[in-house]
Amino acid sequence: MWDDNVDDPSELLLADAVFNQTSKVDFMVRKAEPADVPQIVKLINNETRRIFPSCDAGKILEKSVFSLVLTDAAKLSSIMAHASFSDVPLDKNVNIDGKLWKTHDDLKSINSMNGLFLVFFVWSSEVLPDVALQEVIGNAFLTCTLVDYIILEMPDVNYAGTFLFSSFSQDTILTTKNKKDKKLLIFDKNSLYPQMKIREGREHDLDDLSPLMRISTSEMEDNFSKSYLNDLIAMSDRNNQSVVAEHKSIAVGMLTVTTDINYNMLNTFFQLEPFHGLYKPHIRDELNLAYRHADDGYRVCKEDDKKFVKDEYEESGDESDKGSFTGSSSSFSSEVSTARGTPTHGAEHAQNPTKQISEVFPNSTQNDSIIPMVQSKDDMPLRGDELDPLRPSKMTVSDELGRFPPEAVALHEQLRSGKLELKDIQGLDVEMRNMLNKMEELTARRDMELRVHSSNFHGRDDVCYPMAIYTEFRPIYNGIPNALAIQLCVIDKKYNIRILDLIQGAFLCFPNREYCIITIPSGSQVPFWLEYFVRVIPRKLSLYDRELYVLHRNVFNCRLRVRPGNEQDDQKVRKLIETLYTKDKILNDFVRANMANTCGNQSGLYSFVALAGPAQQSHIIGLIILSDYERVEHYQINYNIDNFIYADLHEPCECAYVHHFVLNPVFRRFAKKILKEVMRYLKKDVLYHRVYSPYKETVKINHQTLLNNLDDWYVVPPRPQINYMKLGLTGVYDQDRIPPPEAMDTSESYSLLLHSRKFTYDIKAELTARIVFVGASETALACLEKIISAPKMCFLHLTLISPHGLPGSLKQDEIRSFMFPRRGGPSLSIDSEGDWLDRTGIQVKVNVIFGKVTSFLREQKVVVINRKDVIPYDYLVFTVGQQFVRPDCGEVEVVDYHLNEFIEHSIQQDEKKREKIKKPLRRQTKKPKNVFVINSEMEAAIALNYIRTQLPSFKRQRLLIHGACLESYCCLNAMLRMGVSPERIVFIIRPEFHMDWEERRAYKDTTKLREIMMEALKTFNIKVLPNHDFLDWFLDLRTNTVTRVNFATPNESEIVSHSCFAYFGYSQHRISDEFLSALLDAYITFDKGISVSIDFKTNDEKIWAAGTCAAYDNKLVAEKYDHPFYNSYEVGHLLAVKIMQELDPTKRSYSVMKTGVLKPTIPQTLTQPLVHYAELPDGWFYMHCRRPGPYRKCCPQDCGCDSCDGGNGTEIVTGSTDRKNDLTQRYFRLCLDANYRVESMECLSKKRFSPWNLSRVYAAHESLLHNLVERFERGEVQCLYNFFQQPWMSAICHDRWHDFRQELAQLYASFCIDEDLKIKDFIKAYMDNLENMEALQVDANIIRRVIESTGLKRRIERRFLEFLRFNRNALPMYARPDFVEKLIEERRLSPLVAPYVTSLYM
């Protein structure tokens, strides 16, 4: 089995020399960043220009597939060398796919899949070029693990530079297409990192292997001691083997594997269907597939299947087949990778007769078929295990809806489409209204189930978009086991690149096994060599605290290649996609692409297939269909593409759109290389893909497809959009200076995924920690938005628990949208918060679980949902926020007529007892049906549906709205728009408008808003009950509805009772009592909120909290920094930063190196304003924007600004809310602080305005706003709305304007007038001098003159022009240099302009 031949001594000496040189840790290697370009340019010398024809470092860095820099280990900021690699040669006459290359003796084994070209290399004078090149090439092989050759093209055949004397390279001559000779320098990975000698383990290897294991804990010492290694080697038998990697007669690595695996347990916890359950195929295997489509009902994929339904919780094997499981911990490092706890049977294996299978070990070392059998539903875009099992005996919602009469179904369709008005419902009989109500409940339940099923998915390897509901079917396997498990893996860090040699040796021990598996603990760092493995998706609600990775043996010699598809591939493609529900669409596009190729490809649709195996017996393992895409400008304007690539360096013709990407799960790790090959063939640099929300109607129009490598794509965060319609651009500028339609159209909402050539060999830090968010508040959504778009980290387990899922998951309803005010954030720039959420990509990467958290088990690290389901976690994040709750009335007043009559009759003779029963009997009941507290869209939809269907049945009862706040005004507006008669509405105001919860909230009503709302209530003749608070209510047990509500004055001197049709409560706003009880039971510290530290951590290190539910610990004395006083969107982004800093493995080691650094004791200052926007009754549009932080109670306008407090601020007011004074009724109040910066704004208008555009004015100096104060004093500003709706506001409304201001602030802080005097110090000294009497003699314009004379003004102007040029797509209205030159040229050529004749003036 083993080759004991001694290696060539000369090769061993060469390898020793190479290893001795590379073992010197003098350099640090990292990926090259765009910020390194200035230093790289300084390293370019004449030798570099001679070898490489192009020296544009920025463009090369953007176009290459891999780039790295070498830095000094002592000074990380100093770049010693840089190299960029590409899969395309520098010389266009060199064709790597040509016949000349493939027939060359030295080059025929090199192709674009296993080779790279060194296209740019620079080095510092402090290091020798050959040493720098050796370090660069060596680290390139370590990073690009699938690359075996690196080629450097010489400028001419006679080149005799220093690179030719490298000890691990060879040169060769290639004849190019133009019949010229080309010298190539070839670097072979085997020369630098020679293959290790693999043999079986021996006991004397322990002396070499033990020092490689870093025993960091007592547990590791017990589990991985020298005696344990001795036992592993001594126990080598039929089911356990140990292989050792040897170099120079020294053991440098060891791998121990076993075949004693609990397959039943693995199939219970993980989706192993793509790998045939890790069993050999058998003729009696039950691999039936059934799924139910949302539109077409039930379908069976294979007609010959008979048994296609199996209960989700039914065990597929014998009870004795379960075996046992050892769950020890594991640890991984660069030197040692240990994997204990592999699911094995252990002692019970010998006692289990069903597991004593006589396996046959064939003599051949490879299987006949290179493609494993894949007959599983896991190739589908939605996992069946996430859904409830299909039960045919149970009547479905569709069946129940079909039982209603046709006329009721027709009326219900009109009701759902909005064609049936309230007056039409009132004319129906009671029976028909009851049927409509029942059908609406069934439809809502069906929509909820669809959302529950379709939302339980995230960035998985085999999952993309939910288009159908699939029932779970657990296949039954009858074949023999087909896997081996890694128990322990340890290797010297110098030989990490040769880890595959050990795994291949393990397969040689078990030639009949096709899969190699390993489990690692959740939350641990993923070893680098698991890049070759495929991560298996865990099943829903899996409590197994480990990650499972699988490797197929044919990955080693698969001979992967990519070519364009053709008609001969039709049958093989059909077989590849036969189990996919989108197979018809994929096949149609594949046929269209083939027809386009034969007709000259005018449609721009391309198809490519990925093949594995020998050329004569190759199998299609993947299919890619893509097209040229011309909407690149739309992506640049609406999404932050520049966070990942420099869009200006990529022409539109270099971008493509991926329609379909289907790949065999076994070859999942080759996905990026396959995409690279496709881009190389089509000469593309960037790929895009859109993901539409499954809740939107556009899903039926815009086809949803598959992406098997979803984790390899980058989720591009959306950008806020300028409302150009409110800037007066039409009729003022020419067509070429008006923003393109892509910038003005925000109707289409989708998540954008991006992939580029330069990301081919990027390795994201895969984080296996299970992070569970509780609550779908704005803080949670902002945090998730930032986390999923992190460019260097990939979170594999993100879960969001919410009672009603994500906002915007329901069908859009105009009336429902009126019930909620909109908070400050980028979502203000588009129509709705749901559309913004669709753009973030949260529904793609996050697993959403519908449920209410009822308890926490901190020791077990689980969250209990709905008192029955359990969700495990490694890190828990509380972002529940504050909510409106039912009013505090002690015990619920219950009206039980029969019980009360019995009591009255039984105690007539006892007057004392009679006095005690003055009110009906009280007992605990569930929530009344007509009591509503609106905190989510689902609750609003339920309330509106109840009112719409039940209002005609109640003629005299009142609709009660309790609590005067912005939300209650929005609710009143929605009721009026829905058609509720104003005479039936009662608006109850608490004493003196006092809301206890507003003291701990970022917003409360201003005096102006209250006045306007009181006038609006009077206009609509709505009954107002001022100075009253809730007392109690009466509940009818028969209908579970509140029939009457009592309100009282503060001292209960007056009690008012109103009959109740529906009650909306807005008086209490806090953390829900049930969640608070769960917190206290788990001993989470709570005081005014969940107590957190500076890092947002609670008293449990594994639990974070942020948002309006959190408050800083009292020992920090930071009450004014509490989260309720600040922008929730900004708090969410800061929470994401804290989480990524905590979990980023690349920063953990760096933070450990820091010693003696004191942690901050003051919370970070947040600066984004607090913005609230709402549509109010009587046609009012309201916006309030103010500085973050607690309110100033002394402010008479209740807006908390300095100008209203009689301070040094300035107040500017235009317009009026009184129609007598202002016919347009456009009130605008703007407050400036003592430094003349905008501090707050209050807008009340009968005409719609853009809240995003106006909110961008916050914190701007009045001089930046065209000298607003001076113009207002001169009477030039009559209306602030019109003033801020001018074209010059476009740049201020831009989302990158704030970054530009920070850039200028840094310039001011660093600019020096002299060598030792900075301009900021000069200005500060000047301002201090103004307090002296001698200041009158100081020139008032000296600062302006200094700025102009030192060149600072010119640099600022240049920066502004660069800002306009960089954002020219969104800001075309500004005059660019080319536009000014064009105007000058037109003026010169115009006959209307007289030429300047100098002779007349001589």
UniProtKB/TrEMBL annotation:
Ranges of residues in domain CFAP61 dimerisation: 1165-1292
User: What InterPro entries does the database record attribute to this sequence?
Assistant: CFAP61, CFAP61_dimer, CFAP61_N
Please give the residue ranges the record annotates as the region Disordered. Answer: 312-357
Bias category Low complexity: which stretches?
323-338
Highest taxon of the lineage: Eukaryota
The Cilia- and flagella-associated protein 61 N-terminal domain, residue ranges: 29-281
Q: What is this protein called?
A: Cilia- and flagella-associated protein 61 N-terminal domain-containing protein
User: Which taxonomic lineage does the organism of this UniProt entry have?
Assistant: Eukaryota, Metazoa, Ecdysozoa, Arthropoda, Hexapoda
